[in-house]
């Protein structure tokens, strides 16, 4: 699909969904007036993150007091099936990510309520749900429709049917999804951010999510090296964060 075709298809998709008009307006501003916003402070944060980074194994041990090997052993068949479903999926989306970090964050927090932004294949959803189902917990997910491709039916594709009873999926932009989620549940044990990568988008969402994180809860943000939003957020609230280097990118995680 050419870039022009993708943009046109996305725009038509928005026009068919009046409930997404607010996000369309934000997208237009982000891609015109605020084009440089996505990479604001990237250089300083890349240096900051590189200087603090530890491995996923080290982070899980330091923060949660657990070894990560059990996860791959205990859920070998589930993960194998999920990997095959991703391989068979006709639409390409984001890959697995640091699954152990998410799973053990939920275990550490004894999580019953988790919120995530960004779903794609549903790898992070799967990791959270494997822990949540032990306690009859609920995962609340925010994920924009895939307007440029016919991929909506594949969102969460790797999540097994037996886990979906514990999952509530909101198909809007974060600024519409999160208020709906917080209206259903106001306090969360684990928060996982992996959606709008812009500086302004992150800063808005970080503030909103932080308000709803319980004391002792875990905050996780993917791709914090894209710009300085996560670093600036942590400095704003005097948060001592752990930075995890994973497959050439950086993840921020802390316990409130």
Quick structural summary:
The protein has 256 residues and is α/β, with parallel strands linked by helices.
Describe the 3D structure.
The chain has helices at residues 3-15, 21-30, 42-52, 56-64, 69-74, 76-88, 99-108, 123-132, 174-184, 199-211, 229-236, and strands spanning 113-117, 138-142, 167-170, 188-193, 213-221, 242-246, 249-255. The chain is of the alpha/beta class and 256 residues long. It has a 7-stranded mixed β-sheet, with helices on both faces. It is globular, with a radius of gyration of 18 Å.
Fill in the keyword field for this structure.
single chain; 256 residues; 45% helix
Regions with pLDDT < 50 over 5+ consecutive residues?
A: none
**SSE class:** alpha/beta
Give the total of beta strands: 7
Secondary-structure element order, N to C = HHHHHHHEHEEHEHEHEE
